[in-house]
């Protein structure tokens, strides 16, 4: 016999988690890197809202008393999660999203097993929930894979997450280099780091203006300091340090056209550039071209090819 109390309990948890999922999906739309991603997130939020309504219908059919406390709790949980994420690294926020989706997936599977002998409508709903959350888990796993190999992922970090990541990278960079002859380069990085830290402090006031200032600082001051540091390292024959700095610039999308892994890139047509991108084998190379294209040419056909190829090589890299 079906344990109705257990079914109701799982439906209630799914209701609360789905409400949180819906809220988070709506918050994520402002972080979408492309219109396509924004549409996907908007559709996901709409589908989550639809799933929430169906879960509530199932509870009513089982004569369950409406869980008003749980409804309020779900909204509070979503709000708290969104606020806490502002102080998290971007990858940690994505891992939190993935954990939420996997919990929804596992509970839907458990509900599916609980209702194997009925009620039939709840059993079908559980199966559809499993399918929906499996799809979202796969999407988030790909996003994390792209982030792991250096991005850019389909989602952008918030200004606070960008500043936190940049400050962390600036602090860790000298330890990564560990080469002689970089005192002057270190001075350049220190100056850039101070500007970033001042911006992070300004963000404590919560102004949008500060967010724009942070983007300007990260886009000019730190990139210029990194390029200057790489020049100094090469001049002083600190090869390991120069390579590390170059890799950092590449991951930030700060390379010039002549530094891209495609010869004569600026002179290529859209079909030729897209073809060249599809032939790249490493996430770092695809990322370099993708970031350059976003910042300088912004051609839709090339961006689509680059994003598709980047997702492919990211999955291949993480799978190995």
Rg measurement, Å: 24 Å
Mean of the pLDDT scores?
Answer: 76
- In what range is the share of β-strand residues? under 5%
Q: Which structural class do the helices and strands define?
A: mainly alpha
Counting DSSP E segments of at least 2 residues, the number of strands comes to: 0
> How many individual helices?
12
Order of helices and strands: HHHHHHHHHHHH
User: Termini distance?
Assistant: 45 Å
- Largest beta-sheet details: none
Taken from the alpha-carbon principal axes, the silhouette is elongated
Helix content: over 70%
Uncertain regions: pLDDT < 50 for 5+ in a row? 175-190, 205-218
What can you tell me about this protein's structure?
The structure is a single chain. The protein is mostly helical. Helix content is 78%, strand content 0%. The chain contains 12 helices and no strands. Helix 1 runs antiparallel to helix 4 (90-114) and helix 5 (120-148) packs across helix 12. The longest helix is centred in the middle third of the chain and has 29 residues, at 120-148. It is elongated, with a radius of gyration of 24 Å. The two termini are 45 Å apart. Residues 175-190 and 205-218 have low confidence and may be disordered.
